[in-house]
Design brief:
alpha/beta; Rossmann fold; 4-stranded antiparallel beta sheet; 3-stranded parallel beta sheet; 6 helices; 28% helix; disordered N terminus
Length: 167
C-alpha cells in the first residue's frame, strides 16, 4: 500500500498527442497495479465520466492475479484506490501508526477495501480485521483485490456485530 497516486489517475490528466489520439479513435486503455489488470470499458476520461455532464460512472474489466475476473463500476461514491484513489489514502501514515501488530480491528463501511487492507497489513499475521459494507460489488472486489489471510470482508453493516463479545 503506498501513498503514490495510482497510474490511472495520472493518465486521466494526460493531454499529450497520444491521449488526444486515443480519445479521438475511441481507444480504451489498460493498466496494471500490483499485478491487477484494469481495462477501460469506455474511452471517456474518468474526470469527464464523474462530471455533472458525464454519465456519472466508468466501467472497467478487472483481472486479478488469481485468474478471477470481474466488471466494476467506479462512481463518485464507489471509488477504487487503484483507479482514482480514495480519500483515506491521505491518512495512510496515521492509520498505520494507530495500529499495532496483533490488534483486532473492525472496519465498518469499508467501501472497496483499501482501509481494511492497510489495517490488516499493519496488524500483521497475529492481528485480524473484520471489514464490512452494504455494497455487494465493493465487497466482491475487496475479497479478490486484497486476499490477505487476516481479513474478512462481509456484506452488511453494524447488524453483523450483534452478539459479538470482546475477548
Amino acid at each position: 500500500m503506498s501513498e503514490v497516486r495510482p497510474p490511472a489517475a495520472e493518465a486521466e490528466q494526460a493531454s499529450g498527442p497520444g491521449a488526444i489520439l486515443r480519445r479521438f479513435l475511441g481507444m480504451r486503455r489498460s493498466f496494471v497495479v500490483d499485478r491487477v489488470r484494469y481495462r477501460e470499458r469506455q474511452a471517456t476520461p474518468l474526470r469527464r465520466a464523474f462530471s455533472p455532464s458525464g454519465p456519472g460512472h466508468k466501467d472497467f474489466d478487472v483481472l486479478f492475479p488469481s485468474g478471477e475476473s470481474m466488471r466494476i463500476r467506479a462512481t463518485p461514491s464507489r471509488r477504487y484506490a487503484d483507479i482514482a484513489g480514495v480519500p483515506e489514502q491521505r491518512h495512510a501514515q496515521l492509520i498505520e501508526s494507530l495500529i499495532a501488530p496483533g490488534m483486532r480491528i473492525c472496519c465498518l463501511h469499508c467501501r472497496t477495501g483499501w482501509v481494511g487492507a492497510v489495517a490488516a497489513i499493519s496488524a500483521g499475521p497475529s492481528g485480524a480485521v473484520f471489514a464490512c459494507d452494504r455494497d455487494h460489488e465493493s465487497i466482491r472486489y475487496a475479497r479478490r483485490r486484497y486476499p490477505l489471510e487476516n481479513i474478512a470482508f462481509e456484506i452488511g453493516g453494524e447488524e453483523l456485530l450483534a452478539g459479538e463479545l470482546d475477548g
